[in-house]
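Project standup — Tuesday

K.O.: blocked on the structure for the chain from last sprint. Re-posting the sequence here as requested.
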Amino acid sequence: MNFTPNVAVSRDCFSSLFKMPRARQEKVLEFIRRFSERPDSPGINFEKIRDAKDKKLRSVRIDDAYRGIVLHPESGNTYVLLWVDHHDDAYAWARNRSCAVNPYTGSLQIFEVCEEKRAAEPAVSETPPLFAGTGDPHQRIYRHPVVLSHCGISVAGRSCKLLVNYRTTEETRRWAVSLLDGRSLDDLEGGEDDLKGYRSLLRGQEPRLEGFGSFDEEADFLVAFLKEIESKGERLKDVCLVVRSRALLERYREALAGRGLPLVKLEAGGPENRDEDGVRTATMHRVKGLEFDRMILAGVCEDIVPPKSWREHEDPPMMNELETRERSLIHVAATRARTHILVTWYGEPSPLLGLKSGRACRR
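H.V.: unblocked you, prediction finished:
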């Protein structure tokens, strides 16, 4: 049986990384790349950490001076790189950390385990509580932008920008980012943001774009494509097909199910049952925050993405805002993919894809 590890890198890991000297960062990034591709490779050894509160934590050697801290249970094939730091500091960080999966969201939570305070210590610290948060204006798919200072949260001089994508491939990242070229995006603090220096550690295939003359031709292709990858050993439950709206989703579900394809609908607000077999189907909005091996963006047609009514808006500033949100929506859907993206349409492609009619891939 082939070993297929599940690998993730904690955001905290990158926070510690960017505090290191640049020369050290390059060496650690190379380790993260190797770890992401094959955590069980011969050069990566997992050592137990003496006195660690969480017995599932292991250390890995990066070089003579630096260590990584990894969550790896005794059984299973899941690895999470949690922290990288100087040898002594890495072990000190690990000794007082405990990890648990939230039973409601399925997300991994990392707790700092504190010793019981001495009676002589004050019960309440006078230091204001710390706030940690993340945001990505390139994934803003709803209205009402948030400026943190307007919420009483000052981040001036205390924020950092994460520039390493550890989930998607460089090919996927590059294509998704190109959708937002030339768009003005705020930095959550009233200024403008850009993606200079943003990169992915993983490499893969270029996104595949396919156009068809009719809806039925597109549906026939999707079924044949999914059955082909299933015959090669891929699990359909690791594939998610998304479309622009709920009404369009029902149309695709009816067409694909009628052609014998097993489907699982991701309901709004509900958890996903990973035990069910079948291609996951959802709206583009629903998959924000999720991950799948393959993403299929179907029905990316003219007059659908964006909706025709939006393109006929008479207010230029509002039309520009709506188009930016639609581009961000495709960006969000595409970057849910760990390895592959397939984009399909029937008739004319969405103008947001930047394809001329003569360049559209047709079957």
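K.O.: great, moving the ticket to review. The chain has two domains: 6-112, 164-353. The CA atoms of residues 49 and 271 lie 34 Å apart.
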